[in-house]
# Entry
Amino acid sequence: MTSAASDAAVADALVELRSAGVRFGAKQALSGIDFSLARGERVALVGANGSGKSTLLRALHGLVPLSEGRRVVAAPAPRLAMVFQRPYMLRLSARGNVELGLMLQGMPRAQRRERAMRALERVGLSAEAGRSGRVLSAGQQQRVALARAWAVQPDVLLLDEPTASLDPTAKREVEALIDEFALQGITVLMSSHNLGQVKRLASRVVYLEQGRMLADVATDHFFSGPLPAEAHLFLKGELPWA
Amino acid sequence: MNPFVESLASAAHLVTGADPQLLHIVGLSLAVSGLACVIATALGLLAGAAVAVGRFRGRGAVLVLLNTLLALPSVVVGLAVYLLLSRAGPLGSWGILFTPAAMVIAQAILVTPIVAALARQTIEDAMRDHGEQLRSLGAGRLECALILAWDERLALLTLALVAFGRAISEVGAVMMVGGNIAGVTRVMTTAIALETSKGDLPLALALGLVLLGVVLLLNVAIGVLRQWRLADDQRTEAVA
# Structure
């Protein structure tokens, strides 16, 4: 594997996967993954569909059990929040949807209302606070999901193709928010098919193929340095169908 | 006049004239089935949610049993409750056989599996689609089930109405454990059976009309709930 960035990251890792694998029935979704995420990093996961990007995010969050290897979390345990490609909106107002994560953390009602409103303000949706989360546009729903994640004051924000189904304007808005959150010191790990977005937002790129990590390098290196042949083909858009 | 038309006219007169006997029977039916439905909905939702999110040994067998109980014959429930509550039975000391309480128990037992099986399916589907997102927010499996049950409340309310419809139209079990005692345990279905056998068609028909009306109202309510849900889901799809 090509690795330039990961060695520096291990020392201050918030969460790590060591020799990790994930299996769904007969399918080996991830295999031999050594990955660590250090405080303040902005990392992008790239690779073709089915390469294991979402599974890696879920494994790092602890949402899927590892079939091999282990997940190591720093002490005190960092707070992780995840935003999905198509966020689930409950039959509640936008504010209610943001409050949900806070409620699950046991925050008192008055405090979580105030925090939820602040989070919605942060993503530019305070005027929509009372509207049903389900009637908002896809871009607004993604911003509500970002507000929901931001509201819990995470150390690590995991984003699974957060702009994949959005129009260009909504994409720009969501990207700006991710950038803002990262500037605040929140560690960001995102999967993306958008290489321009990866260039704009990430300082480190991890390339996955068929559940294996083939490259873990600085962003500049990924786009201009030597890479394994598969990653190079992916960049050129010439990766054959698996 | 044709005897059927004559009976129908008499039945209509009983309904429009708010006949006290008719009102008492209808009131008791609604009370017994309503209470049974509340109990069955509470127990069924809990059981359905537990099976939906629980991962335990023998879960497959529980699912088969739950689905089998959907077709539970009401006379079998009646017999089981009768044996439990009869003087020589394990709960005979309660002394509630041939009372409305026994009828509530029988109907609750009959419809709890319906609520549990359908709630399990509803919550399990929702868990598959959205459970991971809730878990990422810190929800445990049980919290996920409760949140999703709340979110699917319209679907679950429809289940409760279906359960009520099943309970109020049931005759075998309530006949066995209630005894069809006039003014005490006589409900619409048992009264219809009795009056028909006695040849008192007007009262039987009047009760039949009311029962049909109740079932019709339930179906209208279910239809309205479905429309609301559909409209809500379509709005969601439109913005996705």
